Amino acid sequence: MNWRAMLVSATFGFASLVFAQVPAPMRADVAFFISNMVERHAMDADVLRAMFSELKPVSAIVKAVSAPSTNRPWHEYRPLFVDTGRIDGGVRFWNENQAALARAAETYGVPESIIVSIIGVETRFGKVVGNHRVLDALYTLGFDLPGRNEYFKSEMEAFLLLTREQGWSPASIKGSYAGAMGMPQFMPTSYRKYAVDFNTDGTIDLWKDTSDVIGSVANFLYSFGWRRHEPIAVPTRYEGNDVQAVLSLGIKPHTALHQLKAQGVVPSVEVDEQLWASVLTLDGPEGPDYWLCFANFNAILQYNRSRNYAMSVHQLALEIARERQLLAKVESSPASPARR
Q: Global pTM?
């Protein structure tokens, strides 16, 4: 090889080495997010750049978020969540955690059955907590999927703050395709705001500590306006002339029940007529089912904005409480094998 060829080869090799050491330019939105985290929260820019440079959108997350089960008609959705497995599991979970559930009900006013039901609907009592890295989920939804980008970016911000507060490695935390975590599937913002150390052991663990899980779910609902001893939802009929006028007022309680009754709403059971309520419909197998919904239904909706979700929590709670009561009666019967 002559000296010219050697010079060209050496120059090319040096250039390759230099370019290999220059990091790829960072996307403008990611760079802006990082600068925000540095400025507002004093996070390490180099650490954040290294972490974000390795993140890529995950197709499985895009697919999952594009077809949520909550979009199904109610009569198809209900059997997915109000099922024998969750009812039996709910009775077991309640029996195994009676003391914590009773204390949460007393502290926050939220019935044991509702707390148990939410944990059952969310993760089958901790059996299905999600296997996506939370970093991947929040990056995919916050930076690469149109729609609720700003919401998921804010959740990424909360997640990074949460991992710093808890001493977690961000890449080690797994959750749902939406970035929800632990047995109650709290988003990072909710984890920081509403998770509580209910057994006062100095830590908050929403994956394995059922006491913390129970207290945190109850605190969440309480914080969103749960009202002790008030109803959640009752089936109703409509005997007026303009049901759309009633439905168009929205799902949040907006009118005193006595006023709704004057417009043709007929509750299936006696309810305090001074309570504010709303009317919603669900897709029954033979047409619309009408329901009166109260403040506590609205509190459940803050957990998940789907009316199907909130109604499944309500109905599963009723089934779990009914089954537990029935089993207690059987076990206390003189003819029960347990009493022989």
A: 0.89
